[in-house]
Design a protein that fits this description.
This is Enoyl-CoA delta isomerase 1, mitochondrial. By secondary structure, the chain is α/β, with parallel strands linked by helices. The protein is built from 10 helices and 11 strands. The longest helix is centred in the last third of the chain and has 34 residues. The structure holds ligand L52RLTOW.
């Protein structure tokens, strides 16, 4: 039997996410809680939320609009069952022209800079697998809640014959430290939910989206009495080192990406990996 309290709690979690806010893209759904001002942003690019130029651009525009429209917080999640994001869309990196590869990489950099540095409090509600770029999205938020114990998360780039760029690596170092990051990245480890919780890569593991929303509410509640400017500046200082590297080295980072990704053996590896995914 549902108690009155359970009913009230359930209603307060589920009902208020009613006001839609157009992201301007069919790939990103945004609902703003009209009482709290918290936005829930759901990626919805079938089949696996592969991060292509279009989805990355749509996310970037969404983050901008939420800041401009004075949202009070953001939950980044997915509307695709069992998938948070499969990471960068490999088809964008396979056989791409230098122009398209550059545009793709620059859009990824801009999206990350915006997400990582937003003054809004951010929660990743990880309701599916989150390899590589999917893990980067989650790690760039301030708090990570995974729903269900069957999913994996991590930077598995070396398994594809790639390496995670320095800013991906630094983002992980800032969460689980250099020792665990080195171990995880050199082996391309995908952590189970339990392992991720133990190592601190996620903050909570819950059984349902309802619980995850309640955890997010609790996280946002921490800042109720904290002036936004003080909170934002503090976040800036904590994140400055990781962020500044990319801000100062964008061109160099793009060159490293372009030069490495176009190497014949790297392209061959990507082609084989894509084929292996399609054969499954
Ligand atoms: C040495 C040189 C280095 C250069 C270094 C410079 C910079 C670094 C460059 C890049 C960093 C890379 C970051 C990345 O994010 S790479 C992406 C890594 N992602 C993965 O490895 C995940 C792969 N996918 C999966 O494991 C699974 O798909 C899944 C997410 C667990 C979901 O499994 P499920 O069974 O539900 O789905 P399918 O596997 O059947 O997939 C459905 C469909 O989607 C296609 N697909 C899956 N993932 C991707 C992807 N990342 N990109 C493009 N397409 C993807 C898959 O092929 C299927 O396609 P189909 O046509 O068969 O429907």
């Amino acid at each position: 039997m549902t108690t009155v309290l359970q009913h009230v709690v359930r209603r307060s979690i589920l009902r208020p996410f009613a006001k839609s806010f157009s992201s301007g893209s069919p790939l990103v759904d945004v609902q703003v809680n009209d009482k709290t001002g918290v936005a829930i942003v759901k990626m919805g690019r079938a089949p696996v939320n592969g991060l292509n130029t279009e989805l990355l651009g749509a996310l970037n525009d969404t983050f901008d609009s939420l800041e401009k429209n004075k949202a009070t917080g953001m939950i980044l999640s997915s509307s695709i069952p069992n998938i948070y994001s499969a990471g960068l869309d490999i088809s964008e990196m396979y056989n791409g022209t230098p122009e398209n590869l550059t545009k793709f990489w620059n859009t990824l950099q801009s999206m990350w800079i915006n997400l990582y540095s937003t003054p809004l409090p951010t929660v990743a509600l990880i309701n599916g697998n989150a390899p590589a770029g999917g893990c980067l999205l989650a790690m760039s938020c301030e708090y990570r809640v995974m729903v269900g114990s069957k999913f994996v998360i991590g930077l598995n780039e070396t398994q594809l014959g790639l390496f995670a760029p320095k800013w991906f690596q630094d983002t992980m170092v800032s969460i689980i430290g250099p020792r665990q990051t080195e171990l995880a990245l050199t082996s391309g480890k995908l952590f189970s939910a339990q392992e991720a919780l133990k190592i601190g890569l996620i903050d909570e593991l819950v059984a349902s989206e309802e619980e995850a929303l309640a955890s997010s509410d609790k996280f946002f509640g921490l800042f109720k009495r904290i002036p936004g400017y003080a909170r934002g500046q503090t976040k800036n200082f904590v994140r400055a080192e990781v962020l500044d590297w990319l801000l100062k080295n964008r061109e160099h980072d793009t060159k490293v990406f372009l030069n490495s990704i176009q190497l014949p053996h790297v392209q061959k590896g990507l082609g084989l990996y894509l084929q292996s995914l399609k054969k499954k």
